[in-house]
Amino acid sequence: MSIVSDSTLLSSLGKGDSLHQKVLATFPLCDVTEEDLTRNPQMCKLMATLAQHVDKTGLTMFLKSELDKAEQRLQNHRRQWLCSESLYTGLQEMIQDCCVREHHATVPPDQKMFCETVKSCLEVAQCVRQLDLSSTTTEDQSSILGLRSEQVLELMPAEKNVQRIKQSLPNELEKHLKKKCFNLLSYYQPEWENESEGLKNSKLSHLSALLEKEKKRTESLNETSKEKTLLLQRQIQLYTSELTKCVQLLQSLVLDHRLKIQTDLDRKKLEYFEGKCELVLQKIKAEMVDIQLDTYTPEAISAHKKIRENLDSELKACQLEKQSIELKLSSFEILGKDFETLAEEYCRLRQEIEMKNWALKEFTQYKNK
Hints:
HAUS4, mainly alpha, HAUS augmin-like complex, subunit 4, microtubule minus-end binding, HAUS4_met
């Protein structure tokens, strides 16, 4: 790069956002932001330098030129192929139309001869094309069925018929193509079908521009539809995500609220059942008092209470004595079977002593009498 261009770039770097915007516009496919260029001025300088040698897609100028030439050659070959293909298709359609007319009406001899000659010429040309050796075929390989192109060309119609066909073919083909164009025009705009031929020719000359305009509009609508579809999908995903969060929040709120209400409800039920049990107990006590008053006098009830108190006190004393005896027995059980024998002997002696004391007491009473 020359010194002048370097100085120009360096001066441009000091202009602020102008160079940044120019670099970003030159490389739209590059994932670089203006902030990146501001933080890296040398990178901005490098990209500005590259902008003089490459296009927006990253191709060099020479490669871009060669690509444009190749594209132009491809378009020329494609145009030639389309012309040949259109001519061949038109001739095939003319032959088919003639065959269809033969089944519905009488075809003039000259038209019938015209269609047969064109059909024969096409078939011979197609066979010759198939028999023509390509660059990948060796001479040692035999042709199809052993035929040669010269043998197939002998099947061409008479030369005078071919010459007559060559003279009338352009006009016939023009009529056929014009008819197809008029049919296409009527299909595109049905209201133009009944108009004059001159007006149809005028509108037909603008049909390609209209179709191209419709094509561009359709492509634009398709792109807009794709963008809206992507936007709609993003919005649906965002909406679904937010809706899921809302549902989870509602579930947590419902659960917390339900647990709180359930706790309050259980507490109130417990208070209710406690109050009801207390009321039932009070009612039972009142019934017991009524039964006592109906059965006994107040003095008898007072006496029963005293008797019950005495019995309760004696019961408590007996229970205490039982507990002490059980403790002693448990301590005696530790001594084993020998102590059990002694205890039985002791019980037997106690019983004998009690019997003798009773007998002595009875004998004393009898003696005193």
